[in-house]
Each structure stands twice: as structure tokens, then as C-alpha cells.
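queue> pop job 88
queue> type: inverse folding (structure -> sequence)
queue> payload:
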């Protein structure tokens, strides 16, 4: 049994919404992903994190690239880092192993996209593959901040 997961997160990894805005955004994401149907497998989780937490695309992550030298970053380095910070990253500052450049984790080149967030709306088994640009814009308006979507396969 595998799951498709669609996460919607603020574009800024440090940003958190006020609760009324969060509730509006959750209601909208629920409606847009089929979660209002009577007979649906869609499940919505809403999480608030103290520190930016990785929103991993899991099996959809094929490559992590360096934004500085463009090399492919060692997968074990990335996985160890994520495993050591399941409760969040006190800082996103990082020195990459390929060329020693100082950058931040949210600037690495993830294929497929990963993100970092202190607020996350997670949709399990959404009835849509992805939200459209227009739908994301309406969620951003409800939340009061630009949003990104991360699609994972577990
Ligand atoms: Zn590099």
C-alpha cells in the first residue's frame, strides 16, 4: 500500500500564519483536493512546527543538486541530515559537501521539489495530482502569504 501526499507550505520557511488565516487556507485546500466528498479517502493534517521542518518529496526525490557548483550532492549526506533533524532545523545554514559553499538548505536544487516549513497542510490521497497555479494563488490569498506545493509518494 502506498500513499500520495500533497503538502501546501508557506514560501518562506520561517513564516507562520495567524490561526483564522490558517483555518481559511485549510478549508480551501480541503475543498480543492476532494476532501469534502461524503465518500472520500482524503485526509488532511495541519502541523505547526517550532523550527523549519523538512517537507520531503520522499520517493519523488531523484536528485539534490548544489546551487553553487551544480554537482549532485551525495544522497547519504542529505539523508543523514534529514534523519538528524526530524524535529526541525534550528538553522537552515549549511556548508555543502561538494564544493564547501555556504548556502541554505531551502536553496538546494531538489528534483522533485522539497521544502522547509513551520506550517504545513498535508493532504493524504488527494483526488487531484496537483493544485493549479490559480488554485495555489487562491490558497495564498486565504493564508495571506505565497505558498508552494510539495508532492510526495510514500
Ligand atoms: Zn557544490
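queue> result:
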Amino acid at each position: 500500500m502506498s500513499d500520495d501526499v500533497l503538502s501546501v507550505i508557506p514560501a518562506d520557511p520561517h513564516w507562520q500564519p495567524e490561526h483564522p488565516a490558517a483555518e481559511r487556507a485549510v478549508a480551501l485546500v480541503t475543498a480543492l483536493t476532494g476532501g469534502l466528498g461524503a465518500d472520500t479517502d482524503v485526509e488532511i493534517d495541519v502541523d505547526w512546527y517550532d523550527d523549519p521542518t523538512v517537507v520531503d518529496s520522499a520517493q519523488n526525490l531523484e536528485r539534490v543538486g548544489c546551487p553553487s557548483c551544480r554537482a549532485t550532492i551525495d544522497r547519504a549526506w542529505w539523508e543523514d541530515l534529514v534523519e538528524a533533524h526530524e524535529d526541525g532545523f534550528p538553522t537552515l545554514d549549511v556548508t555543502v559537501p561538494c564544493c564547501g559553499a555556504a548556502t541554505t538548505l531551502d536553496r538546494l536544487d531538489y528534483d522533485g521539489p522539497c521544502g522547509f516549513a513551520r506550517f504545513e497542510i498535508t493532504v493524504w490521497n488527494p483526488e487531484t495530482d496537483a493544485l493549479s497555479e490559480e488554485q495555489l494563488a487562491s490558497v495564498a490569498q486565504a493564508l495571506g502569504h505565497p505558498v508552494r506545493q510539495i508532492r510526495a509518494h510514500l
